[in-house]
Amino acid sequence: MEKLVNIRRVVKVVKGGRIFGFSALVVVGDGNGKVGYGTGKAREVPAAIQKAMDKAKKAMKSVPLKNGTLYYPITSCVGAANVYMQPASEGTGVIAGGPMRSVLEAVGVHNILAKCHGTRNPISVVRATVEGLTSMTSPQSVAAKRGKTVEQITGEA
Known about the structure:
It is a single chain. This protein is an alpha+beta fold. The protein folds into two domains: 60 residues, 2-Layer Sandwich (Double Stranded RNA Binding Domain), CATH 3.30.160; 86 residues, Ribosomal Protein S5, domain 2, CATH 3.30.230.10. 32% of the residues lie in helices and 37% in strands. The chain has five helices and eight strands; from the N terminus they run E-E-E-H-E-E-E-E-H-E-H-H-H. The protein has a four-stranded antiparallel beta sheet with strand order 1-2-3-4. Strands 5-6-8-7 form a four-stranded mixed beta sheet. Helix 2 runs parallel beside helix 3. The longest helix is centred in the N-terminal third of the chain and has 14 residues. The mean pLDDT is 90.
């Protein structure tokens, strides 16, 4: 699943005038716990999108998910972008804005509450969202590290 998040027109000023180009931000995911993002710059829009797509596919990271939502609430910051994501019950849907929604849908999250504070810069928001999702650990991995069972970690007995 590929999602085009943002296209910007960029300008390089040189002695002879201005050189116009385009910058694209793309999010790629398999809808089953893997997500990546990439940016590409070129003189034409399709070339910029293709470069961004290639970078995003190379930068895929895995995210542990629990039945289409998160294991626990997450806060992540990149630059001035503060992102808060909270698991939601079945039937809630993806309640998130703009760039965050693209990342969450690409990774395969179906029920989540999310909010972005600070800057609304798409690149920063996407970076913060991916960083927060990849920083999440599953109870299975925590239990394996501690040498305990999942029930002991989660408190379910």
